[in-house]
Amino acid sequence: MPILLVFALIAACLPVEWPQPPFAPERETAFALTVGAVTLVLALALALRTWVIRTLRRDPTRRYEVARAYNWWRRALFFVNIGMVAACVLVFGWGWLAQRELLIFWNKSAQLAPFAELAVPLPYFVVLVGCWLIYYDAERALYRVLHLGDRPYWSRSSYLLHNSRQFALMVMLPVALIVTQQTLNRYAPETTRTVVYKVVSLAVVPCMILFMPLVMKPLLGLKSMPAGPTRDRFEALARRLDFRCSDFLVWNTHGASVNAFITGLLPRVRYVVFTDRILDDLPPEELDAVFGHEVGHAKHGHIWLYAGFLTLSLSVLAALVLFLAKYIDAATSDDMVRLRTWLEGFKTWLALPPVALVTAYLFVVFGALSRRCERQADLFGSKTMSCADPCCTGHDAKTVYPPGGECLCPTGLRTFARALDRVRELNGMDHDSGGRPLRRVLRSVWGWLRAWQHGPMSRRISYLLDVHNRLADEPRFQKRLFVFKCALMLMLLVALLALGEAVGWKDLFDAL
Ligand SMILES: [Zn+2]
Ligand SMILES: [Zn+2]
User: Fold this and answer.
1) In the chain, domain spans
2) Angular region, 405: left φ>0, alpha ψ -120 to 50, beta rest
3) For residue 297, how far is its CA from the centre of ligand 1 (angstroms)?
4) Which residues of the chain have a pLDDT value below 70?
5) Ligand index nearest the alpha carbon of residue 395
6) What global pTM score does this model have?
7) Which ligand is nearest to the CA of 393?
8) Per-residue pLDDT at 311
9) 339-351 burial code (b ≥16 CB/10 A, e <16)
């Protein structure tokens, strides 16, 4: 759940006056309670690791049960870790201690040292690295019993490097941007008020999306796909679909991940990335279908759509927060004055609700958009493997695939559904059925939360099988999705225009 983590870390780095610890002596209490909390969650991780290793040593036949239990507990402990660190910052006084101890003198006043806000979520970073070190042994033990005869498991240092690279890209990059901005606000306030600075900081998000592929390649250690039959097939397929990208990349995860993705807005800085395991474990026609899915994202303009949607949405949310603040400030009725006095009691805490608003908005609205686009890409992946005969019963070496991926046939749909099913199986994702009712409900809630961007695999597969039985549904879906996208963007644009007029464009520009 990187998104939850990103916003939790951003919230921790905001200039909120975190509360003091519950009792004196404050410094010692805050330190002792935080160290205690970190030790406790690390002890839980250690207990899980020891249980996995001992159980597998005693009875290797329980490997599937152990793998399931391990996955469940690791997920649960992820939330326990976040909760515990939140308690350190909010209740045990860690946030207060970090802000107090890291002051320096600057321009005759005490200021928080540059980037010192990162010390507030420091307990989380300690827990995270500690967990990587602890879980390594459990994952290696599981790998050995689940993948008999496969390649050897990676070393502890490359496992650490792999996890830190992913964490740096997905979580720390946005957090670092916010922290840099806050540091500039403290140490170069005149610069941050200039128009040039405003324009540059507004351009950071689109530039990041544009140049992300160039950052991603060295950061994740991605390598160009070597020449060979797979690369030849992808190149031929790209020609047939009239798709351009600068390279096909391989992500070496030592078999840990079965995945593929596309990154980059423009063909010149666009990569299609495959993990080692998906290249090894998927049969050629299913791999082609997965490649087709990624091409579908580019063909349907999803990356541009996401960039536009995010830029518009963040501007609208900023305008909305500004509008509410101005409205409450200007109001004269008794109720509003009472509300204002009540809110003033929270002072610096008011930095937090906008972060929660953005998180919830992305989760709900971007989630809804993204799940629909994934479905559209699934259909494009099926079209990639389709012939021109809507009643076909199977393909062979003589089958002709029309250029551009414009036809949809039952065999193409079945191929893509099979690819999804295999990816689900290889990733060890749960099927929805079985278990007691409460467990089933919890599992499907978790499934939705985890799959907020893509939708649960079982849903995606059953949708493709529905279309397989009624091919006429596909054009209707495309039309409905087109209307949905237009309506969404139009609504955002209207909201931005209305709010911009209401709060004044200059104020909005300053607030961004
Ligand atoms: Zn996708
Ligand atoms: Zn066909």
Assistant:
1) 2-183, 223-511
2) left
3) 7
4) 1, 148-150, 428-436, 448, 511
5) 2
6) 0.86
7) 2
8) 85
9) eeeeeeeeeeeee
